[in-house]
Specification:
By secondary structure, this protein is an alpha+beta fold. It has three helices and four strands, in the order E-H-H-E-H-E-E.
């Protein structure tokens, strides 16, 4: 069965999401940004969502996780929860 591991950052606005993405792309660590800005409980783990299979996350997330490249920063991705930055860390 397909699986992936990923980490993400959840914020309320697209503007904040873009600002945080720029910070990460400029060298700030994903974990640091997640711990200080993400509204998801996963923030305490640097945004790590662990291992999951298709269908366990919201559709917008699944599409990015299971079709995008590993190690690339994606976002903003809008879901019912807010705006996400997402990085697939492994897939199998």
């Amino acid at each position: 069965m397909a699986w992936a591991t990923a980490r993400h950052i959840l914020v309320t606005t697209e503007e904040e999401c873009n600002t945080l993405k720029a910070a990460i792309e400029s060298g700030t660590s994903f974990e640091t940004v997640a711990q200080s800005h993400s509204q998801c409980p996963s923030s305490r783990d640097g945004g790590d969502l662990g291992k999951f299979s298709p269908g366990q996350m919201v559709p917008e997330f699944d599409k990015a996780v299971f079709s995008g490249d590993v190690g690339v920063l994606y976002g903003p991705i809008k879901t019912q929860f807010g705006y996400h930055l997402l990085e697939v860390t492994a897939r199998g």
